Amino acid sequence: MKRKYVIILHITFWVLLLANNLWGSIGRGILSGHQSRPIDLQLFCRYSIIEIGFLLLPVTCFYSACLLVAPQLIEKKKYVNAALLAVMLFFFIVAFRYVMEYYFFVPVLNFDNYRGHPYSPGRYLTNVFFVYFPSYFVYGLMYFFVEDWYRARQRQQEFEKEKATAELTFLRSQLNPHFLFNSINDIYSLTYQQSEQAPAALLKLSEILRYMLREGGQNTVSLQSEVSYLENVIALQRISTKGAACINFNIEGYIGGQQIATLLLIAFVENAFKHGVLNDAVSPVDISLHATNEEIQFSVRNKKNDHQKDKTSGIGLNNVRRRLELMYPVKHILTIDDAPEFYTVNLTLQLT
After folding, report:
1. Beta-strand pair 247-253/285-291
2. What is the pLDDT of residues 232-264, one digit of tens each?
3. Half-sphere exposure of 94 (CA within 13 A, CB side)
4. 212 and 334 in one domain?
């Protein structure tokens, strides 16, 4: 909560408490002579001054406990200092009330709180000890404890948010070069072979890089943009294999303005291209996407390449798992079926 709202809340509480006490005092007619005449401005001002004076006691007790005693007791663990401050506060309130009532209320406002009874120190000691300290002093300590816990919780949430943001940025920075290096190697091979498809491949790569530069810095993009990006990647893969790649990309449902984490799905596709058999028409790489406004289901299935020397999946899948944990902690289901012949990934994302 912003500080100005906290201040407004505090002021509102004390004003309401003052109004309640003032209403009760006027109703009981505690000022001598009030019973013989109706309330007027002069009487109202006298009542107000009395209740403001009495209100200073709980205000002093509450904020002294909150701002002076509690930090020594809870934050700094200086129990002796806290005890000394509490004792000093206790005697200060006793003295303040005695001076206020005996030297101001009686001679100036003609208000005798004890109706002619002697103003003994013991009366003030017991009153402050059994009324103000068990209530407003304890409330001040409790308020500081709750506020300190709330501030610590806010700091922890901000730290986790900054940590997550930094980690997501780092994960994306790992993912983009990983795909980029693979694509450059493919285009280099086409160029080296003087393939006519090299210019088209370079154009597709420029579109992919444009997407990365424009959208890659954002946490989320539209699903339609992400699908277009995947289509460019698949097209680039087909060009690099001279049309030999057997890839099916099936899209069902509504593809539009749904938001999805940027560059999230590419890791699964890239993994299939890297470790799968691409030129088997009987067992092509099957990529499917089914989308609604609330959910998307994405799957990639590829036949394993037994001759693949690099048996590791690289950093892509590890990164995407971590990004899912950060951005969709309870809204995703990721299953990976690593069968002897086929490798299948199924991802379900709740978008709302």
Report:
1. parallel
2. 888 888 877 777 889 999 999 989 889 998 888
3. 19
4. yes
Query: Residue for token digits 């816990």?
Result: 149
201 with 151, same domain: the answer is no
Residue 233 contacts residue 269 (beta carbons within 8 Å): yes
State the Cα–Cα distance between residues 246 and 191, nearest whole angstrom.
Answer: 22
Q: Which residues contact 73 (CB under 8 A, 6 or more apart)?
A: 79, 82, 141
Looking up tokens 């986790």 gives 160
**How far lies 223's CA from each of 220, 233, 253, 258, in Å?**
9, 15, 12, 5
Q: Give the CA dihedral 209, 212, 215, 219, nearest 10 degrees.
A: 180
Looking at the structure, tell me whether residues 205 and 323 fall in a common domain: yes
Q: What would the DSSP string read from start to end of 213-231? A: HHHTTSSEEEHHHHHHHHH
pLDDT single digits (tens) 49-85: 999 999 999 999 999 999 999 999 888 889 999 999 9
Using CA atoms, how far residue 79 sits from 69, 84, 90, 152, in Å, is 9, 9, 16, 22
Structural domain ending residue among the three candidates 128, 156, 184 = 156
